[in-house]
Each structure stands twice: as C-alpha cells, then as structure tokens.
Write a structure and sequence with these properties.
508 residues; Cobalt-precorrin-4 Transmethylase, domain 1; Methyltransferase, Cobalt-precorrin-4 Transmethylase, Domain 2; binds S-adenosyl-L-homocysteine; 19 helices; Rossmann fold; flat; alpha/beta; 4 domains
C-alpha cells in the first residue's frame, strides 16, 4: 500500500512574504500539494515546486466557495494518495485559523497532521505601526479577540464588562463591528479618550493605518476608507508613536515616501525608511518572473565555453542565469573559462552567493559604465560576450559593446512585468507622498501610465538610466543614488531632505 502523506498546517505570516518561518518555507518548497487561503501571501506560492498541485481554498463569504468540510476532505484525499500536503494559512494557523478542525479531521482518518506556527497578524499589526503590545508600567497583558462568534454573532455577543477590565485589546475580524465594539466598551465604563489604532493589510504592500480614540476611531476609519483585513488595537499602548520616530533625528522623520520597484525591493526600501522614521507607501510597479523560455538562453548556457565574457547588468540577471544553469544540470564550474563583469555592488554580491567572483566591477553603475569598463579591460575587439538581461533592458550596453567591435549575445534571463497600481494607492501617493523612489525605467513608465502626479514630490532614482527615463517622461529628478543599492537610495533621499529642511523646512 502507498505511504500516507502528512498534512502540515503552515502559518504563512501576516502578508509580507519574508515573514514566514524557515520551517514553513522548507515545507512549502518541497510540498506535493499546497492548499492555500485567501490571506496567504501570493508571492509565497511562487516558491512551490513547479509540479506541485496548488489549490485555492479561499473561503470568502460571498464566493460560496469551499466549505470547511470540502477543505478537510481535500487534505485527507491528497495525503491518503501519498502526497505531502501544505495547508498554507494567513498568520498563525492556531489563531482563528480553524487548525483544530482540520487537525481533528486528519487524525480521524489516520492522516498525520503537524502544525507549523506563523507570525499572527495580531502581533504583526501592532508591530507594523511601531506599537509594542506590552509595555512596562502601561500594559502587562493583551487580549486577542474575534469580533465574530462561531455561530455568526457579532459585537453584541462580547462580554464588555470583562473587556473593560483587560489592558491592551487586539481585535480581529472587527472592521464591520468597530463602531459597535467601541460603543459597547464606552457603555461598560471605558474612557472615551482611550487610544485606538487600526491597521489594514499590515506588512503588505498596501498597508494603511489610522489612529484615534474609542470615541472617534470608527468615524476616522470610515472617512479614510480602511477595509478588512484589519486589526484594531485598543489601550494606552495604541498611543505609541512609531518608536523609531522618537529616537531618530533623521530629516526623513514623518516624511511619506512612495517606494516602487519589485515587491522584494519595496520591502527592503520600506524597512530602511522606517528605520529613519519615514512613513513608506509601498507601491510595487514591477514583478520579476524567471519563467522565461528564451531559447537563446538555453543555447548559451549549454555552450558557455564559446564566450570570453559574461556581463551581468543586474542582480536579477544573475538569478535568472543561474536558475537556468542549474536547470541544465550545470554549475558555476562551467564558467571557469569566462571572465565575469558586473555592473555594481549589488550584482557582485548576488554573484558571490553563487560562488562566483567578478573580474571587473563597473565604477559607474549603468549600462554605459559597464560597457566602458569591459572595453577598457578586454582591449581586443572580436571578443564574445554574453549579456543575460531583462526582456525590457535598454540597448545602451549592447550597442556600446558592439561599436567597440565585440561580438554580443543578448539573452532574456528574466521578465519584467508591469503591475498597474490600484487607484486608491495612486490617489494616496498623489495627495500625500512627499517623495518617490524609482529603481528602474520600467517603474518610471508604470508610474507615468498610472497617472501619478509627481510635480511637487522629491524624486530619487537608483541610477542615471532610471533618471533618464524620468526626464523622458518630463519628471524632474532631484537626486541620483551614489550606488545602485536600496540603502544608497535612502541615504540619498536623506541627504536631499536635509538640504530641503535647511532651505525650506520641507521634511523637517
Ligand atoms: N490566522 C490569522 C487570522 C485569521 S482571521 C492570523 O493569525 O493572522 C482573519 C482576520 O485576521 C482578519 O479579519 C483580520 O482581522 C486579521 N488579519 C489577518 N491578516 C491581516 C493583516 N495582514 N492585516 C490586518 N489584519 C489581518
């Protein structure tokens, strides 16, 4: 008889794909079947094996979708056929995640079932607003509650006499019930001026938040249009300003900065900005995909000996190239006869991760800079050079190399797919952002297409090529990062804001 598989109830974390545990990620990468929830981050699904069966088990109330029984049946069916199943759930499976029901159903049918915890939104949401859930002398406990009861009841089923005696309250599934809950607490004797913080889509690209008091928060949430999924934090701790804000002297303090680029880059920029007290608005405008089927890449990888040079003009180019190399059952040893050129520090770092040192790294981190660095070093014309790049890469690098007499082969190592930002985010940037960061010409194009009005915002670009794309779209670039890295972009914005702060008071 076939071995029975195991069901793993894996917590995917609150939304930012980097907030899954290492265990969760390992299981996800090797699972035969992945059954995922509506709240499980989409980006994590791209980590699954390409041949894994992926099943959407979103139980959104209006989809009439999968009932809990149907989901239980699927878990059991696949495991009994011998598959290891990851049941991927938003946050932690054990926090309003119906883990116990799925576990009981599995065990009843003799299917082993393991819970792998995740970071629940009840902890991530306060953290995402800079709020510590317990604070010495202020709150020594916190209560996490669902605004909805198991039989469909709402705010009227809560025990307010008990809740007013609790310290920090963290409310889940409470967007619709917010006004009723606040009233219930006030009627039970809570101080109407008690601080309240609400956060929608905590840690996700479109995180939004607001603060108020028991008395006015429902109205503020309504006015600002915050939607589910939302967590509400009630109690003295909710008054904490973003804690970095109290310590930082950065001119970026409280500055609203729109970050664009891939999801990974946006997350990196957002963290760097928050560390300096700024308020990032995450607006991914491109998605990187490695599902390229360029036959030229295949050919090049299998005949790598014919090249004297491989020139990488981005870290993603490195990732895409090595994915294909490994898929062709080769590894970095095949590159021993090629010299390696890199456009800059981030690309060289990525190469090192694959065990490859660069022979030359361009001082000026642009396509033209890379071309000049190669021409200076290579000397002789007629050398064969491979360029693993994006499908949207500009012609400067190959053109310059070709005019120096080099034999250039361009291959598509990854695809840059534009993401149109939702209108609500465009409006938010147009009305409230002080600055915007661009890390690629594709993101600039996307911003133009989306109708962003950037005339009154500080614009910082990762490099000259991106800056040129801005100028082409009639956007005024205020500064270009010294190095083509996320950190350098934030340093540059900080420098710019300090100039503006002394001159005009902006960003102070
Ligand atoms: N198991 C999940 C909770 C599922 S219940 C966890 O541990 O996070 C669904 C509720 O979780 C939503 O109504 C909302 O209150 C909350 N929620 C989940 N993810 C959220 C997020 N990223 N931001 C804000 N609230 C979130």
């Amino acid at each position: 008889m076939k071995r029975c598989g195991t069901v793993y109830l894996v917590g995917a974390g609150p939304g930012d794909p980097s907030l899954i545990t290492l265990s969760g990620m390992r299981l996800l990468k090797r699972a035969d079947v992945v059954i995922y929830d509506r709240l499980a981050p989409n980006a994590l699904l791209s980590m699954c094996r390409t041949d894994a069966i992926k099943i959407d088990a979103g139980k959104s109330s209006d989809s009439g979708g999968n009932s809990q029984d149907a989901i239980n049946a699927k878990l059991i069916e696949h495991a009994q056929r011998g598959s290891d199943v990851v049941r991927l759930k938003g946050g932690d499976p054990g926090v309003f995640g119906r883990a116990s029901e799925e576990q009981a159903a599995c065990l009843e049918h003799g299917v082993p079932c393991v819970i792998v915890p995740g970071i629940s939104s009840c902890l991530a949401a306060p953290a995402a607003m800079g709020i510590a859930t317990t604070q010495r002398g202020c709150s020594r406990s916190f209560t996490v509650l669902s605004a909805r009861s198991s039989d469909g009841g709402g705010a009227e089923t809560l025990d307010y006499a008990k809740l007013v005696r609790d310290e920090t309250l963290i409310i889940m599934m409470g967007r619709k019930e917010l006004a009723a809950i606040c009233n219930g607490l006030i009627e039970a004797g809570a101080d109407p001026s008690l601080p309240v913080a609400c956060v929608e889509r905590a840690t996700m690209d479109q995180q939004r938040q607001c603060r108020g008091t028991l008395e006015d928060i429902a109205e503020i949430v309504e006015r600002e249009g915050l939607q589910a999924p939302m967590v509400t934090i009630i109690g003295e701790v909710a008054a904490t300003d973003d804690c970095t804000a109290r310590f930082t002297k950065s001119p970026l303090l409280n500055m609203k900065v729109a970050v664009t680029g891939s999801q990974a880059l946006c997350a990196k920029l957002a963290v760097a900005l928050m560390a300096r007290g700024a308020d990032p608005i995450r607006c991914p405008m491109i998605r990187i995909e490695f599902s390229t089927t360029d036959p030229a890449l295949e050919l090049a990888v299998n005949a790598i000996d014919q090249f004297d040079w491989i020139a990488f003009s981005s870290a993603n180019g490195v990732r895409g190239f090595f994915k294909r190399l490994i898929a062709a059952k080769l590894d970095s040893r095949t590159l021993s006869n090629c010299r390696i050129a890199s456009v800059g520090v981030a690309t060289s770092r990525e190469l090192l991760k694959h065990g490859v040192r660069t022979d030359i790294q361009s001082e000026i981190e642009t396509g033209a800079g890379l071309a000049d660095a190669i021409i200076d070093t290579a000397g002789d014309s007629g050398q064969c050079i491979l360029l693993p790049r994006s499908d949207k890469a500009l012609a400067t690098l190959p053109d310059r190399l070709e005019s120096a007499g080099m034999n250039v082969t361009q291959v598509v190592a990854y695809l840059t797919v534009a993401i149109a930002p939702p209108t609500i985010l465009v409006d938010q940037i147009n009305t409230s952002a002080d600055a915007i960061l661009f890390a690629s010409p594709s993101a600039v194009k996307c911003a133009g297409d989306a109708g962003l009005c950037l005339d009154d915002k500080l614009i910082v670009c990762i490099g000259e090529t991106t800056a040129a794309a801005c100028t082409h779209k009639h956007m005024k670039v205020h500064a270009v990062a010294k190095r083509a890295t996320a950190e350098s972009m934030v340093d540059t914005l900080e420098w710019l804001a300090s100039l503006n702060a002394t001159e005009t008071g902006v960003g102070a």
